[in-house]
Amino acid sequence: SEDLLDRLAKESVDYSGADLKSLCTEAALCAIRRSLPRVYDLLQPPPSKEEVSVSLNSLAIEEMDFVRSFRSII
Predict the structure, then answer these.
(1) In this structure, what are the phi and psi dihedrals at residue 48, rounded to the nearest 5 degrees?
(2) How far is CA 24 from CA 37, 42, 43, 46, in A?
(3) Checking phi first, is residue 14 left (phi over 0); if not, alpha (psi -120 to 50) or beta?
(4) What is the pLDDT of residues 62-73, one digit of tens each?
(5) Which end of the chain is more exposed for a tag (fewer CB within 10 A), N or C?
(6) Would you put residue 15 in left (φ > 0), alpha (ψ -120 to 50) or beta?
């Protein structure tokens, strides 16, 4: 949404291109962790290729993913 883009722009003043890339990459990883938690849980069997494909095809990076990303990058 435009509101989200405005908030992200305000939070990332002085970020370099590499910083922005890192922020977006981490947000995408947060979305993947949220959508496919079994990928990161070694105590459970890994998800099937079909499950991964369906999850990735419907993956949406949400505001909470960017919030987590801001907290985790240095």
Answers:
(1) -70, 165
(2) 19, 26, 29, 26
(3) left
(4) 999 999 999 998
(5) C
(6) beta
